[in-house]
Amino acid sequence: MKTNLFFQASRRHWLVRLQKIGILALGAWFSPQTVFAKKEDAARAIDEITGGKPVSDGRVNLIIPPLVENGNLVVLKVSVESPMTPSNYVKAIHVIAEGNPLPNIFTAYLSSRSGTANITTRVRLADSQTVWAIAQMSDGTFWRGHADTLVTLSACTEMV
Amino acid sequence: MSKTSRTSITMPSSAKKGAIVEIRAIAQHDMESGFRYSEAGKPIPREIIRTFTCTYNDVEVFKADFYPGIGANPLIIFTTIATETGTLEFKWVGDDGYEALNQAHITVS
Questions:
Q1: Contacts with B33 from chain A: Cβ below 8 Å
Q2: Is A106–B65 a contact, with Cβ atoms under 8 angstroms apart?
Q3: I want to staple A63 with a disulfide (CB 3.0 to 4.6 A). Which of A77, A112, A139, B95 is the partner?
Q4: Contacts of B88 in chain A (CB under 8 A)
Q5: Which chain A residues are closer than 8 Å to B64 by Cβ?
Q6: A151 touches chain B (CB under 8 A)
Q7: Closest Cα in chain A, distance from residue B1 (Å)
Q8: CATH of the domain at A49
C-alpha cells in the first residue's frame, strides 16, 4: 500500500516534469530562429564596428517615430552629446537596425569642424524592431543609444 | 557606363564666422535594395549610392557611407562650422558608375 502510494506520487511528478520539458522544448523551437538570428547579425555588425571594445549606454539620442505606417521612408534623427572641440569630438556615428535583412543603415564620419553631432536622414525599416546608434568618440570610446518602433507596413516586401 | 541624376542642396548663402550652418543634401536615386523580387520572381540586383562626401574649400568636412537601409532619394542633413568664404562641394558615388556632383557658395562675414 505504502509503496503503491509512493509510486503514484512519483509518476505524477514525472508527468509534470515531462510536461515542463515539453513546453520548454516548444519555446526553444519557436523563438530563437525568428528572433535571435537577426539580433546576432546586429550584434556581429556592432562587434565589427567596435572591434570588441566595450560600449557604454548614454550620450547618444536616437529619434524615430514610435509608430510607423510605412517602413519605406522613416525619418531618423541621431544626436550625440559632445563638445565637438578638436581634442574631443565624435568621429563616427553608426546606425544599426536589428530587424533589417542587412543591419547596417548608415555610417556618418564627423570631425571637429562639424560643430554639432546631429544627423537626420530617411531610412527603411523591415519590421517592428529596436534601432541602435553607436557613436565612436575621438578618444576611442564607444557610446550607444536605441529606439523602439512599431512598423505596420514593412519595407522590402512589395513586388515591382 | 557612368550615370548621374538630379541633386539639390539647401543651405544658407551667408553666415557669420564660427556659426554652425545646417546643410540638407538630397539626390534623386531609387536606392534599389537588392532584397526585392520582380513579378517573374527574379531578384532585382542591388543598385545604391555608396558614399557621400562634402568638402569645404577642398577640405573634407563630412562623409557618410550608405547601405540598402537608406530610403529612396536619400536625404541627409548635417552641420558644419562656417570658417571662411568659399565653395562647398558635394559628391555622391554609387553602383554601376553612378556619380553626382553639386556645389554651393557661402559668404562668411
A1: 124, 155-156
A2: yes
A3: A77
A4: none
A5: 106-109, 119
A6: no
A7: 25
A8: 2.60.40.2470
Which ipTM score applies to this complex?
0.90
Does residue B36 contact residue A159 with C-beta atoms inside 8 Å?
yes
Tell me which residue range forms the domain holding A148: 36-153
- Residue A38 is predicted with a pLDDT of 72
pLDDT at A34: 46
Look up residue A83 and give its amino acid.
P
Tell me whether residue A100 is in a domain: yes
Give the pLDDT mean for A30-55: 75
Whether pLDDT at A26 is above 80:
no
The Cα of B52 is separated from the nearest Cα of chain A by a number of Å equal to: 9
Please tell me the total number of residues recorded for chain A in this structure: 160
Global confidence as pTM? 0.80
Query: pLDDT averaged over chain A?
Result: 83
Domains belonging to chain B, first-starting first, are 7-108 (2.60.40.10)
Write out the three cell numbers for B70. 537608406
Q: Name the burial class of residue A16, with classes exposed (0-12), middle (13-18) and buried (19+) by CB atoms within 10 angstroms of its CB.
A: exposed
* Structural domain includes residue A5: no
